[in-house]
Amino acid sequence: MRVLLSIKPVHVENILSGAKTFEFRRKIFSRRDIKTVLIYCTRPVGRLVGEFDIAEILEGHPEQLWLKTRSGSGISKEYYDGYFCGRTQAYALKIGAVRPFAEHINPSHVMENFSPPQSFMYVGHQRAPLFEQAHF
Asked: What SUPFAM superfamilies does its record include (predicted)?
């Protein structure tokens, strides 16, 4: 099972380059069988650009989580604090193997009635072959 995350272009670039080894979330998916993240790069790109394996899911108070993840955050402390402002719980996906797609995919071509999720959306196994073709 995969989950699709909407991620801003600057963060996608940092994930694909290896500069960002944690993806932060205010909310996390309830299913624990999620092993792979499908990366939807938000506008102006608006495409599926790759995927990464989830090595681990960390959670905790934002200040404690920052101390554990800051070296791989790919963002400033100010940005992090703004993102988690007023929150008592924070989540970080530790990024495992990253697989950029050789060609970016228009999500409307592989998913009916696609609308970019605010947080995440589940993508079932039945869609996997569509994305496998996009690897390197």
From this structure: PUA domain-like
Distance between the two ends of the chain, CA-based, in angstroms? Answer: 21
Q: Name the 3-class secondary structure at 120.
A: strand
Beta bridge partners of 40: 6, 48
Full-model pTM: 0.90
- Reading the block at residue 129, the tokens are 């072959």
Q: What amino acid is encoded at 56 in this protein?
A: E
Are 96 and 51 within 8 A, CB to CB? no
- Written as tens digits, the pLDDT of the chain (136 aa) is 899 999 999 999 999 999 999 999 999 999 989 999 999 999 999 999 999 999 999 999 999 999 999 999 999 999 999 999 999 999 999 999 999 999 999 999 999 999 999 989 999 754 444 555 544 3
Query: What residue ranges in 8-67 does DSSP mark as E strands?
Result: 22-25, 36-41, 47-60
The C-alpha atoms of residue 132 and residue 116 are separated, in whole angstroms, by 21
- Residue 40 corresponds to which tokens in the numbers above? 């939807």
